[in-house]
Amino acid sequence: MVVKLSKTALFSLAILLLSPNVWAQQATTSSISAQLGEAQEIYQQGRRFFKAGETELALQYFQRSHQLSQGRSSTLLAMAQCESILKRYDEALLHYRAYLATEAGQKDQIRVQERIKTVELLQQQAEKKAAQDRAKAAAEKAQRDQEAARIAAQVAEQISQQKLSALEEKLKPEESAWYQEPWLWIVVGVVVAGAGTGTGLALSDSGDSSNGGTSGVILKP
Fold first, then answer.
1. In sequence order, what are the residues at sequence separation of 6 or more whose Cβ sits closer than 8 angstroms to the Cβ of residue 80?
2. Distance between CA atoms of residues 158 and 167, nearest Å
3. What Cα–Cα distance (Å) separates residue 26 from each residue in 17, 33, 41, 211, 220?
4. CA 49, CA 58: separation in Å to the nearest integer?
5. Domains of the chain in sequence order
C-alpha cells in the first residue's frame, strides 16, 4: 500500500529531518524560562530579607539570583547596596560601576554616580582608620615589648646577683666554734700553768711553817 503525502506534509517532514535540534532548542528555551522565573523568585526573597535588615542573608540571595538571571542589572544594584552597608567597599564599587554600564544604570546615571562618590569617600575613611589602628597597635606592641624587655633585664640582674652572692658565700672561710679557737687554748694553758706555780709556792710556805721556823723552839708569851 502506497501512502501519498501532500506537498505541505512533505515540506514539514523535510524541515524536521533537516533540523534535528528544533526540539532541543525548544527544551532549552523552556529551561531558560524556568531558570529566569527561579531567579526572579530568589530576587524577591532577597528583597524581603533586605527590608527586614538581614543584609548578609539578602546579599546571598541577590548573588544567587544574579547567577541564574545571567547578570540581570537589578541584581547588580541590589548587591552593591548590600555590600555598601556591609562595608565591602571594593565589591560595592565594582557592582555599582557594572550597573552604571547597563541600560538601566544609564537611565539612573546621576543617582548611581552619587552613590559611587559616597562609597569612595567611605572607603577612604575606612582605609585611614585602618592605618591609624595599625599604627596604634604597632605602638602598643612596641611598648609591651619594651616593658617585657625591661622586666626580663631586671630578672636577669636579680638572678646574676643571687649567683654572685652564692659564689661569694662559698669563698668565705668556714667559721670555727669558739672553743676551737687556738688563742683560747693558749690563754687556758697560761692560766693552768699559773695556777700550778701558785699551788707549788703555797705548799712550800706551809712546810716551812710546820718546822717551827727557828730551831724548833716555841716561845712563850
1. 91, 92, 93, 95, 96, 99, 115
2. 14
3. 16, 11, 23, 169, 179
4. 5
5. 36-158 (1.25.40.10)
CB 61 within 8 A of CB 46: yes
Residue 65 near residue 40, CB atoms below 8 Å = yes
> Mean per-residue pLDDT for 45-66?
96
Which residue matches cell numbers 625591661? Answer: 150
Q: pLDDT tens-digit profile of 74-115?
A: 999 999 999 999 999 999 999 999 999 999 999 999 999 999
Q: What would the pLDDT profile of 120-137 be if each residue is shown by its tens digit?
A: 999 999 999 999 999 999
HEC string for 171-183: HCCCCCCHHHCHH
